[in-house]
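Table S2 (continued). Query chain:
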Amino acid sequence: MSQLSPMSEIANYETIYRHFGVFDKITTSYNTDGWCKGCIIEHKLNLGSKTDELSRAKKELIRYNDILSKNGEYKAYYLIALDQLNGNCYVYAHNDIENAIDMFNAYDEYNKLLLYINAEKVVKYDVNILNVVALSEKYYNENPKAKIKDFFNYIRTPNDKVNEWKGKEQDFAFIIDELTDPASQKILGRFYTPEKYTSISRQYVLNAIDDIKDKYSDYIILDRCAGSGNLEIVFDDDEIITHFVLNTIEWKEYIALMQRFSKYQNKPRAILPPAGIEYSDANKAPQEIQDLMKEYIIKSNECQNGLLSGTLIGGDALSENFINSIQDYIELHNQGKLGIIILENPPYADTGDTSNISNKKGKTNSWVKEQGKIKGVNGNSLNELSNQFIWSAFKYYSPDHAIIYSPIKYWKSNHILEINGKEPTFVEGYLCNRKFFHATESAISLIHWKNVLTKSNEKIILDSDIGKVEIYKVYSPISSLYPKEKKASSVNIGLNTYCFKWSYMVNPLRSFFTDDITKNDVLQRGVEITKDNILEIMPLFSANNHSILTDYTKKEVLMCSGDGGKEYLKDKDFLNDCLFYSLLTQKNKTSVKSDFYSYGFSILEKKSKHQKILKLWQEIYDFTKTYGIYNIIQDDENYIITIENNKKIKQWRNPQLGDDIKRIRTNIELFYIEHIKEKMFKFKLIV
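Corresponding output:
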């Protein structure tokens, strides 16, 4: 293997790991110079250039190994200091950083280095409150269908990462919500806010304080859904903490707040609701604290207003009682004596979706929602819990500033903040990546509003992890473009296919075609696809099944829209391309019983840009005699099916068919990007 150049490539970790053939095995996460299972490497340009360079490397190796275990990773047995310039390598055992167990030149004897890298020898460590949350996150990432009971079983049984845990679940009672599996967290609409973004909202709060500090002699920062305090904890033990008024509805999170701030000299002005304990009680035994709080915790046989058992009496921030409970602050604000800043990451659950399990186990209605309806707010907008929090924040508290985490649709399509064409002043904002909130990758807006009404923005520009993002408002839903006639006027033009009324969100990429007219959705909201309207509907279907979500800043930001009106109908080539896409995309789930495919292909104007895909489709159809890529994929007759470990394993009976299906799925999405995407924006079918 050739010697690396000390002047150019040597300082590049990637080059070094590629040189050793371990690039795919080594990761540089957690700001390390490189680690893998059982091994951690610290690079120095020249370990001999300064007398303390090796000492610094050894200290950093110990520190980073500790970081790995605190983040739920494997703890390394071998700690390696590498001299990039000369290749000198020092290998230490995890428990003896002073005495090297091996020394050699990695560039001359790289196989020695590979022995340590490939050994996968680890050090098991104890499960404790510092690492258990990270351990649970790693476990759920690797076992997506696992529940919290599975995680506790995992840490109780022998494994190669941690020592068997001998404790009881109540040892982690105060952080149990953070150990809950992601599916259950989603039921409650809960998404934790990572420090990656709380540092940004912290600065927004400081900016808001600077703006109002000369106007008022005092101020509060109100968070009605504080959870366990992730938004607030980044203020450390600053005096600003004394201005916080925090509320949480869950008793375990309430205790977590008490515990966190009991260690601070500066404590929040209030933690609501009053629940029977003081800061001095926060570190008592779990059962003792629960006994002190028992009169304030809603029991399962006392559930009221749709609230879950285990929540706190008085903790419902969307109730009239809660607003009344902090009326003193509101009065002082109205008198000009107290500034109010709202800082919140409200839950995102949809209380209007009756198919959502959260509505069977969580809160489905609220006083705020009913008041919003009375005052003329769109009822569908207030189905979102986050929208209820945002609307009520401005309606009942008139804050000077509001710093809010939420899906952007509250501003973009729901227009929750608008009053007669005006809205609060946009100050600054950031698009956060929801994957860091223990959720799927998509965008969550963090926006700082100043409560001075100005002409409503048609566009706002937010920062993001990958640069500036322009976001435009949507004024008309795509449903406004639907044909007015839901039924065919004659049996001769009907295609026995219904198109659901689609949602305004692009991200789910759902199919909206079915021929099952027994479904309530079809009967209530379906539009029958006919020979008269097929070209009119296909662009609407294509808009909602687009293939342009290339990064997280577009997911739940780009939305279907009717703002361009019927202008798209003038472009016959666009209509034809959308028909072509709709006929061949797997996202069309119309069954073979429908006349949709045969009629659609009969009117398709075949152009040169279609020929390559059509040729591939013809080969697939000649072999299967079946319309619809989705239908072919779903047909078990096309597979050899075996059972392994109680799981059904499917392999294509004809491997060439499997390859052709894969190719056509890829090619039709590429066709969309090349020929349809830009016109979707041009005609404002996607905004």
